[in-house]
Amino acid sequence: MTKFIKIVAATALLVSSALAAEYTIKLTHVVSPNTPKGQGADFFAKRVAELTGGKVEVVVFPNSQLYGDGEEMKALKLGNAHIAMPSFSKFTSLVPEMQLFDLPFLFRDKDHLYKVLDGEVGQIIRDKVSAKGFIALDYWDAGFKHMSSNKKAILMPEDAAGQKFRIMSSHVLEAQFKAIGANPQVLPFSEVYSALQQGVVDGAENPLSNFYTKKFNEVQTDLTLSGHGYLGYLVIMSESFWKKFPADLKPKVIQAMKEATAFERKAAATDDDDTLAKIKEYGKTSGKLAVHELTPDQKVAWQKAMEKIYPQFYKVVGEDLIKKAQAVK
Ligand code: SIN
User: Fold this and answer.
1) Which segments of 150-248 are extended strands (E)?
2) pLDDT tens across 38-90, in order?
3) Which of 12, 106, 204, 314 has an alpha carbon 20 to 30 Å from 146's alpha carbon atom?
């Protein structure tokens, strides 16, 4: 879709919304509506309408329909969109410390993850984002990332050597792939499918929900359940928009966001098992995708190979912040 058609379609949608509602919140994201993030966004829209008695309408633009990576934050600054939920890596140039969350094997499990995000470390990062002129709302969840390839099974770090991997724009992710001898390449999320299909890159790292809903399973031969890194989001709002938003409606929007966060995290917690079953079924029936589990020894080898990059980021992320996150019990 050209930019012009996108804008015409968005305007048509907004005009029909405006007929019913007094205020419109434009929410933009880059993933499929049937991911946890997509479901959370739709749930938020529904709850805002309910809690405000229809006075406020949230119009959700999924799948990079309106703005893709790199465009979302600019759109919020200009007031052209009002809420976005970029993944942590997409904040790299704005708040380099956010790359903390990209560090491989940082989180022991989901319990550790939520304690970090909802505790002091999460607040420090949120404050840094607020200082850049955004309203930093809640942390949402996509899940742990797994490696995939269309070259061969990646069971040990050296299997990735020489392969080209798509990464989000993050120096940590770049260093992570270089540490295992692979070639990282930054691409927007909307271009990953075609890049994999056309061999621009050989592989990628994704949580299962993004892998399956974007049909990456169709253009990869091997998926390794490496869980080596984490993908999450910070929901942000346009500061200029929020300043002008009616004071009596603000608590209702915040309440809807609180409920949407709980809903989204629950969806993320249950989604992985269901999606993995679907991916395995696809692999079995098509005969085109093999799913690999790592043995404990293989996992240790990955951890050793990737954790080497931590000291490179002591300065940019802050050694203290890394240690603080690791120490959370
Ligand atoms: C997203 O989940 O928002 C996209 C993540 C990516 O770019 O890989």
Assistant:
1) 164-167, 183-186, 203-206, 222-238
2) 999 999 999 999 999 999 999 999 999 999 998 999 999 999 999 999 999 99
3) 314
